[in-house]
């Protein structure tokens, strides 16, 4: 079965991103497919590679990137939410005249249409937020 | 319909709202699992709802909150794999954020 996941809460605030990650892991462990993980609102903070949690704490961004790379997941960050919160890739840096980027690989910045498409293409869409 | 609730019944009215919808399955996760603690003010509500709803609660979140030894009878505990199964079994799901 095809799953899509929407994350609308930032890391290290409430439990939403932890639950979303553990759910995603379980989906894959069960042999299902993840069509896309979409990060919206404060969820875009899951995609900054500049995060530096204490060494004895979980690294939420790294955990997502490792899961995505190992399973070839499509990790999409909402462009409007990212612009408001300073999540920047090369394209956004040039377009908006910024002097740095911070988007972790393999996240990509795209539009809300990607969420709609995920809702249409996947058999199930599960929302994690606060 | 699978209703996913992640808020404590002592914090937000998500559980009350779901109970008013009538039927289906309820999965309590995160702080939502406080609803299934025996002796809590929400216990009678949960017990009454068991007639109409199947009520599930996420075991890791129950254990994290120290209420594993007093889960209301009739509530079904699931792990993350069970969470995935519930989503797959139910054609639709709604997270009550």
Please explain how this structure is put together.
- The complex is a heterodimer of chains A (130) and B (97).
- Chain A contains five helices and five strands; from the N terminus they run βαβαβααβαβ.
- With 130 residues, chain A is α/β, with parallel strands linked by helices.
- Chain A has a single domain (2-128), classed as DsrEFH-like (Hypothetical Protein Ychn, Chain: A).
- A five-stranded parallel beta sheet of chain A has the order 4-3-2-1-5, sandwiched between helices.
- In chain A, helix 2 (60-71) links the parallel strand 2 and strand 3.
- In chain A, helix 1 runs parallel beside helix 2.
- The longest helix of chain A is centred in the N-terminal third of the chain and has 14 residues, at 16-29.
- Chain A is globular.
- The two termini of chain A are 26 Å apart.
- The mean pLDDT of chain A is 98.
- Chain B is of the alpha/beta class.
- Chain B has a single domain (2-95), classed as DsrEFH-like (Hypothetical Protein Ychn, Chain: A, 3-Layer(aba) Sandwich).
- Chain B has four helices and five strands, in the order βαβαβαβαβ.
- In chain B, strand 2 (24-28), helix 2 (43-49) and strand 3 (53-58) form a beta-alpha-beta unit.
- Classes of the chains: A alpha/beta (130), B alpha/beta (97).
- At the A-B interface, helix 1 and strand 5 of A face helix 4 of B.
């Amino acid at each position: 079965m095809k799953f899509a996941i929407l994350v609308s809460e930032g890391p290290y605030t409430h439990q939403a991103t932890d639950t979303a990650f553990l759910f995603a892991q379980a989906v894959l462990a069960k042999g299902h497919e993840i069509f896309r993980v979409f990060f919206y609102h404060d969820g875009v903070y899951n995609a900054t590679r500049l995060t530096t949690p204490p060494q004895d704490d979980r690294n939420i961004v790294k955990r997502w990137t490792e899961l995505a790379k190992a399973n070839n997941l499509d990790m999409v960050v909402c462009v409007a939410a990212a612009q408001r919160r300073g999540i920047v890739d090369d394209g956004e840096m040039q377009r908006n005249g910024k002097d740095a980027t911070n988007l972790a690989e393999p996240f990509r910045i795209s539009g809300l249409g990607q969420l709609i498409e995920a809702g249409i293409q996947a058999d199930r869409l599960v929302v994690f937020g606060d | 319909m699978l209703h996913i609730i992640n808020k404590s019944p002592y914090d937000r009215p998500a559980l009350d709202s779901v109970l008013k919808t009538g039927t289906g399955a309820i999965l309590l996760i995160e702080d939502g699992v406080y609803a299934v603690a025996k002796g809590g003010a929400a216990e009678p509500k949960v017990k009454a709802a068991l007639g109409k709803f199947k009520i599930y609660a996420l075991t890791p979140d129950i254990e994290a909150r120290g209420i594993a030894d007093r889960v209301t009878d009739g509530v079904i505990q699931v792990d993350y794999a069970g969470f995935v199964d519930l989503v797959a079994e139910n054609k639709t799901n709604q997270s009550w954020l």
